[in-house]
Amino acid sequence: MDRRHQKRVRLRAVLLAFFFFLWATGLSFRLVKIQVVDHSRLKTLVLRQNQNKDTILPIRGTIYDRNGKILARSLPAPSVFLYPFEDEALPIQMEKIYKLKGILNLSYKEIQKIKNRIEKGDHFIWVKRKIDHQQAERVKKLRLPGIFLKLENKRYYPQEKLAAHVLGGVSIDDAGLSGIEYEYDSKLGGKKGERLILRDAKKREYNFEILKEPEAGKDLILSIDETIQYIAEKELERAVHQHRASWGTVIIAQPFTGEILAMANYPTYDPNKYPPSSLDSGRNRAIHYNFEPGSTFKIATALAALEANRVKLNDTFDCGEGVIQLAGKTIRDYKKFGLLTFPEVIQYSSNVGAIQIGQLVGESFFFERIKAYGFGEKTGIDLPGEEKGIFRKLSDWSKISLASLSFGQEISVTAIQLLQVMNIIANRGLITNPKIVKKILLSKNEIRERPSHNRRVLSEKAASTMIKILERVVEEGTGTTAQINGYRIAGKTGTAQKFNPAIGAYSSTLHTSSFVGFGPVQKPAFSMIVVIDEPKDKYHGGEVAAPLFRKIAQRLFLYLRIPPQKESKVLLTAKLMEENKR
């Protein structure tokens, strides 16, 4: 028995040693495979399971007005995210989200999106981004496993709706989407950084490792004056409501530099709540909207006549009964004028007289001058989405085109284009491209100022003569409601019938009212255009737009500290008589 027992023990020992040898050999092969053969692949897999790369968004540049007041800036804001635990069931994960629902005001759509991403197996899930600090404190107090907070940068517009269409707005990731934010996104946005998000083996704790530091964006100084912008917006809003209009826009500029001091639109929106609630409120109609200019375009007609030397100030035009027939089309004045001098045609805004002036100029020269003044082309303002208007080629003109263009039909313009023509006149024949950004702060010691480029598109003599005519428009013509006691103003009214495609003709009830001018005449401090679309009851430019020009200009003279220095009408009349003799 003892021998048998000893034999069995030896057999068991041998078998055990054999199996241990096989186990040790297999383990050795496995270790070699893991440590040598599959080392790179497995290391990558482990890293992928326990770390993620994360983009670090840089601090976006600050936007200032011309006097250093902040219009847009970025500040730290906490964001909430979830790291799902792989050993937790979906109901447990979602229970955490439901606990945050009330604090973060999570919608059903947002909750469903989070649920879908958990089911998909995502390792990093945003719950709510850029919340306020009170909400963040309430989230912290819950101490929910897998729920974390991290700081991001949130865009703030401290003046809320002020200059909304100029500033634009940004996405949740701080990308510029409209306005200056979009046009200068590469400067404001800076350069993104990168970091690793490292987790422990249980994936319940994390820390960050910076791979690339972000580079902050550049600051911008705009030409906009916060106070002038505020004045323009408030007065415009009142006027749109008063006349029950569909919309309105006001642009104020420095004629000599092209710098935009204010660009107001109504309706408007709050860029803190971007995107706008409606497309209508988000449109910058100062540069995006094309409209027929009506009588304001008679400025271009008169300038072309002066440049062609086809008229003199004492030339008269028979406007008769206020009716003219051309190619089977009847064109009327708003009243009977009889005989009018060249300045009076513009002063009283006679369509019949303007047509006769246009016929003296001729199609070819008129076409060239319209192009020279910038119509049919973008002004080059540094804002996105500028329209170039609609101005047909000379070969596409009809028999009635010269007459129609002479009083502002068959052409569509933008408000900024009309203001540009007034700037040319105020600038004695020189054109300067308009601009919104005045300076770019590249660093603490380096500033890039955007230069102004002037070129002559109109003779100084024609510009000076036109100034006198436009001053008479305000003194005695259709623009008397733009008069300001103590100040000399030059300007022109416009009342354009809107074309109705449904009936294939101009509407008798829908109009666009406008006034464009500058002051003071002696040394223009500002130019301004006012456009009010579809006003009810009153609709003439002299009834709707010119009074708004006066209200804003009165406040501008006070704000800019420009003292009254108006010359008497007697002296003005004497100057014009002297000009007539020449």
What characteristics describe this protein?
582 residues, Penicillin-binding protein 2a (Domain 2), 20 helices, five-stranded antiparallel sheet, 2 domains, 23% strand, seven-stranded mixed sheet, elongated, Beta-lactamase, alpha+beta
Q: What report would you give on this structure?
A:
This protein folds into two domains: 56-189 and 210-217, Penicillin-binding protein 2a (Domain 2) (Alpha-Beta Complex); 226-581, DD-peptidase/beta-lactamase superfamily (Beta-lactamase, 3-Layer(aba) Sandwich), CATH 3.40.710.10. The chain is built from 20 helices and 23 strands. With 582 residues, it is α+β, with helices and mostly antiparallel strands. The strands form seven sheets. Strands 2, 3, 4, 5, 10, 18 and 19 form a seven-stranded mixed beta sheet that branches. A five-stranded antiparallel beta sheet has the order 12-11-23-22-21, sandwiched between helices. A three-stranded antiparallel beta sheet has the order 1-8-9. 39% of the residues lie in helices and 23% in strands. Helix 3 (90-104) packs antiparallel against helix 4 (108-120).
